[in-house]
């Protein structure tokens, strides 16, 4: 690389922010394969290629992060105490979710029924990581980190929302399992959803207050305005998918009577969260256009343009399927096109930053301002 940094220095400055690249790439191939209503030439080849690319990145990033903590054990404590970088630990389980979903979609053609077994094992691992970071990061926020209301941004959502992302994946996994296993996954998914969604909504309320009192964050955190779409999109998608999976998962058990109720709650709850997300989608555009007048410096936070928008697009298209309303389908398709455009721009800028080395810069080690993400560059 042109940065002149040694491999060990790159490892030392590797941060969990990189897993947001998995999140953005993963939701793109899922949206194109599962949600986009019109097939495109080469769509099957493209989605499978992105899945393999995403898996390769996840293995690489996991190896780099493990190497960092092995070579520099003190960096873990620095990371947990950092008021911004620690939030991105939630990207680790969220980045894994599209990969395990990919095993459900593409894996059976490669390894047969073992793909579902692998996806189930990855889902339980993901649930463990999501719950762990959902408790661990707030604990450090309460006890070790320094926070001010005027410096708060939507990145507070990242360790919290990971549990509901796992819950939505549970709704996708359950129909592939035997009824007893599906019941456990669906019940666990509802618990994970509850571990996340109420807290996420609480954070959004505080964020609204912060924006009213202290106005917009520094332009290096401009993209964080899109992150609020994440809990709205995954919250709605989780209710919709779990509501669809619950009747079959609960059939023949003591919860059988709750199956139709879960479906109804999923649709009504999904619509309400989707509507709340629509307000934030419009606001995110308005704020981004305002920031553009100042110039948006590139950093890894730009991946916030992708995953929140992608899950909101997925929930929109799931609503089109559930309600039969054409308007949801059209709007969902436009959101997927927007997602693809954002992903293309951010991916090109990311590889440029990797080549020149300025993205390998951990604020928790270099003493940068806590507002700044790694490798900020105008």
TrEMBL record:
Its main location: membrane. One of its GO terms (molecular function) is sulfite transmembrane transporter activity. It is a multi-pass membrane protein. The keyword Cell membrane applies. Pfam families: SLAC1. Keywords: Cell membrane, Membrane, Transmembrane, Transmembrane helix, Transport. One of its GO terms (cellular component) is plasma membrane. InterPro entries: SLAC1/Mae1/Ssu1/TehA, Sulfite_efflux_TDT, Voltage-dep_anion_channel_sf. The keyword Cell membrane applies. The chain crosses the membrane at residues 50-72, 84-106, 121-142, 154-178, 190-213, 225-246, 266-288, 300-319, 325-346. It is found in: Cell membrane. CDD domains: TDT_SSU1. Belongs to the tellurite-resistance/dicarboxylate transporter (TDT) family. This is C4-dicarboxylate ABC transporter. It comes from Acidihalobacter prosperus. The lineage of its organism: Bacteria, Pseudomonadati, Pseudomonadota, Gammaproteobacteria, Chromatiales.
